[in-house]
Amino acid sequence: xxxxxxxxxxxxxxxxxxxxxxxxxxxxxxxxxxxxxxxxxxxxxxxxxxxxxxxxxxxxxxxxxxxxxxxxxxxxxxxxxxxxxxxxxxxxxxxxxxxxxxxxxxxxxxxxxxxxxxxxxxxxxxxxxxxxxxxxxxxxxxxxxxxxxxxxxxxxxxxxxxxxxxxxxxxxxxxxxxxxxxxxxxxxxxxxxxxxxxxxxxxxxxxxxx
Length: 210
Prior knowledge:
mainly beta
């Protein structure tokens, strides 16, 4: 591409204008180029407390086709049910209110050409919900993609968690649609759960409004 003085977008690789964006190629590289620092799908280190989890899956549109340009952000509590947030100390009465220092609590992953994503983390602990009632362990997800005027917010629960039956937030979701929030254990891969996001259609994932 020809470089022209004063026309930065001609040689920086700015993508076309979209509903969300435009975004610059320096921060959204793919393929065999170096992964940008903004994409950190690994939330835990070797010293992080808790059971290791791998959350893998894919994002699909209303026709069941993979979405190759979605961006997912994952927020969760550590294994003790504490968030890496300045307000955590005042939110939970605990002898040790600080989050595990070796756990970021936040990850970001872009989907590949087949709409797939994966996060490496730990099983989150229970956190208080409405009225102080404990919520089942879950992971908060924020999703954006081309053509979406607003970000989508959802949750990932682990399908084999016994606390699901008493979760106050899940109880607000119609029974027939709760399965869209459940990640299923992959039997042949230890500590791995699969979660699919369907943006529309008959299998549409439950999204929350804030």
